Amino acid sequence: MSIAIPSELITALRGAKHVVFLTGAGVSAESGIATFRDAMTGLWERYSAEQLANADAFRRDRELVWGWYEWRRMQVMKAEPNAAHRAIAAIASKVPRVDVVTQNVDDLHERAGSDKVLHLHGRLNRPFCFACGHPHTLSAGIPNEPEGGRRLAPPQCERCGGYVRPGVVWFGEMLPKSQWDAAVEACEACDVLFSVGTSSLVQPAAGLPLLAARRRAMVVQVNPNPTSLDGIAQINLVGAAGVIMPALVDATW
Ligand code: APR
């Protein structure tokens, strides 16, 4: 099935000096990484991501929370970037400035060739001490079989002996300031903003396309499902990012 890319989008992209991609879990879905609001499986089927992704959950049951994140880190390490990650990386050579702003904690954009990715919600591979904040170096290789839902004791901090926590931003926590400020600057300066594979439910990231729209950038959404951005995006490309993004590159350049 061929995807119809609107001609106004092709024209805008050919003339664009600066494009921003704001991505969410949906961009990694075709790499086999479950999105946040998909139902969970295994030991975690009794929980939602929101229930595990917060500091209180870690205080209450750190082995459950660390085990869940290590299972996710293992999934990411076994996964490969998909056609959407690759298309986004390829667009960097077609447009003078491209910024990738992601809510994802995986490294699939980087592995597809995007550099200087802004990670608004942290990274799975950058854990740090829950007590003192000291960064923790993970051992090389894929984590030891947390597959199937195993509790795992987190490592302890080499500096203070505290427990190491995942390097992600949990609900109720501040976003990393430098990444957020850079994302706001990019969204306010771009000509075209793509919101790819995000439910647009989680603030403050969900507000970024509005900053771009207010500055008269073209806002484009890529998502198979409706979201609250539908009424704001000038163009809604309905479908899987791994199909739409390569079709967009082919149609434009
Ligand atoms: N291509 C594009 N979009 C897809 C695909 C696909 N192949 N598959 C699913 N989607 C869309 C879904 O329709 C949904 O709108 O991806 C979106 C995923 O939504 P969420 O699971 O809510 O993920 P996200 O928007 O990234 O969540 C934001 O919430 O839990 C927190 O910190 C976590 O960063 C996360 C934030």
Q: What is the gist of this entry?
A:
Helix content is 34%, strand content 12%. With 253 residues, it is of the alpha/beta class.
Describe the SSE topology.
Blueprint: H1 7-15, E1 18-23, H2 26-29, H3 49-52, H4 55-60, H5 62-78, H6 83-91, E2 97-102, H7 108-112, E3 118-119, E4 128-129, E5 164-165, H8 177-189, E6 192-196, H9 208-214, E7 218-222, E8 235-237, H10 241-252
Parallel strand pairs: 1-2, 1-6, 2-3, 6-7, 7-8
Antiparallel strand pairs: 4-5
Helix pairs in contact: 6-10, 8-9
The structure holds adenosine-5-diphosphoribose.
Residues 24-26, 29-30, 35-37, 49, 53, 103, 121, 197-199, 201-202, 222-225, 227, 240-242 line the site of adenosine-5-diphosphoribose.
Explain this structure.
This protein is of the alpha/beta class and 253 residues long. It folds into two domains: 1-33 and 80-123 and 175-253, TPP-binding domain (Rossmann fold, 3-Layer(aba) Sandwich), CATH 3.40.50.1220; 34-78 and 128-165, SIR2/SIRT2 'Small Domain'. The chain has helices at residues 7-15, 26-29, 49-52, 55-60, 62-78, 83-91, 108-112, 177-189, 208-214, 241-252; strands at 18-23, 97-102, 118-119, 128-129, 164-165, 192-196, 218-222, 235-237. A six-stranded parallel sheet has the order 3-2-1-6-7-8, sandwiched between helices. Strands 4-5 form a two-stranded antiparallel ribbon. Strand 6, helix 9 (208-214) and strand 7 form a beta-alpha-beta unit. Helix 6 packs parallel to helix 10 and helix 8 (177-189) packs parallel to helix 9. It is elongated. The protein binds adenosine-5-diphosphoribose. Adenosine-5-diphosphoribose (APR) binds at residues 24-26, 29-30, 35-37, 49, 53, 103, 121, 197-199, 201-202, 222-225, 227, 240-242.
